[in-house]
Amino acid sequence: MKKKDDLTKDAPEVPEGGLSRRRFMGAAALAGVAGATGLGTSVMSREAWAAAAEEARNKVHVGPGELDEYYGFWSGGHQGEVRVLGVPSMRELMRIPVFNVDSATGWGITNESKEILGGDQQYLNGDCHHPHISMTDGRYDGKYLFINDKANTRVARIRLDIMKTDKITHIPNVQAIHGLRLQKVPKTNYVFCNAEFVIPQPNDGKEFSLENSYTMFSALDAETMEVAWQVIVDGNLDNTDADYTGKYAASTCYNSERALDLAGTMRNDRDWVVVFNVERIAAAVKAGKFKTIGDSKVPVVDGRGKSEFTRYIPVPKNPHGLNTSPDGKYFIANGKLSPTVSVIAIDKLDALFDDKIELRDTVVAEPELGLGPLHTTFDGRGNAYTTLFIDSQVCKWNIADAIKHYNGDKVNYIRQKLDVHYQPGHNHASLTESRDADGKWLVVLSKFSKDRFLPVGPLHPENDQLIDISGEEMKLVHDGPTFAEPHDCILVRRDQIKTKKIYERDDPFFAGARAQAKKDGVTLESDNKVIRDGNKVRVYMTSVAPQFGMTEFKVKEGDQVTVYVTNLDMVEDVTHGFCMVNHGVSMEISPQQTSSVTFTAGKPGVYWYYCNWFCHALHMEMGGRMLVEKA
Helix, strand or coil for residue 190? Predict the structure, then answer.
């Protein structure tokens, strides 16, 4: 078997077509860290490229009135939201507010959303990275989408039938949830979360040192959204993924040194992939073999060192992405500061946990691909696609051939390299996180757009590129400017998502409004009345386009006013809005939905409220007035 140091001696030639090296940002600074490589890129003639691009563009066209084949769910990056796109058209269909405040829908303003966000504990920012869809037997079931908030250590769940966030969980004992993936088999029972940063335990402000500091791997119950258990680990945690048996999850670590400075985090030539034995962890927790930390009641087990719960597989160097092949055979760790990726055979993990083989015996290939490998995705035909950040390329390579090369065969595992624009991070192929990976489309999310779009000032958009991978060659067909680093996405067939056209009246999304109305003796579907309880005033009204059921009401200055609006329209897409002028509140009310918002009545005077979502030819006439009297 070849050693790692031997790989650079006879790295495979690139497919016929010549060699070239793109200029790349930061090459001088990073080449010494990443190491030199002899790999280049396949070059097509201008005429051949133009013909191939035209052919691929014909596939991407979705005409007026036609529907896309796939839903794409994009993380909203620093915007704190999730964006819904149609693929291959790349048309934006919807934005789902999650950790942000959104004045259009009232997210972060309405009582229903504030309750989900945590009331007084809510933050005004979010940093969404990794959207993933719930699964049953390794296939997307379209029930939920989960997404992390690195900025404030949270995980959110989105109901895909209404495309609304319905749960948000603050993860205790850790900081900065970065990597997030789901249990695939038998279904998504657990949501796996990596906390990136090492912190003191307890983190009570008494010490700044690393002496008693660590981070943890967390598992949330996907239905209750409560933290089921946590595992203390050596080093830190970056990205994660799960297998197709339900037994193992794995995470990359880029700071095995536990360093606090940049140079220190690059000291070791190898860091590791930590593999978690989910069955053993769950059994220990069930048997009561755990501890708790501080005020948290979450069960915690220790996975450091020689633990029954973990194994630490050495891989080069500051690894980043961790991706499971759709055939369930391999975890692939992307080297970042090494030009290699490490292929870990999942079927060897039982023997590893039984101490029958050594840690590196699980590594069955370590192909050299280029500079800055970050993330890998798959086409379901045995090929992998890895982003090369420094080279600004995607490398298509064959897993089986990479394994043969690692075992000494003279075989070229690289199929093609394609320039992308510029510095790609995540990439994602259609259905790639499931057994159904179909190898049709690849999205590459590039961190910089530079000269690809009209200039819009010092802050540039990022660039999401769509690539046709249905044939032997990758073909770039679309550039898409995006705002605030969307980071990652997931593509699912449109038939795997079943959305409601209108709300059902017993929907749990507005259960709080129904409960309060019952206490007040109010029937939400018919009553228009005002309930006064001291300085608390509850205003109940219906709406049918183009009129509110109540067009006037009175309150006192300083009253805490809650307005409940129930949209009685039964027609799809007839959404109403409620906006109270000069009070900083607005909200969306979709058909058959009840929404509520609370505000403090301002200084005495008359204030108009109006419908701020277009609903009717007489939309402008849909309004009413609130009279604020002196207290």
Answer: strand
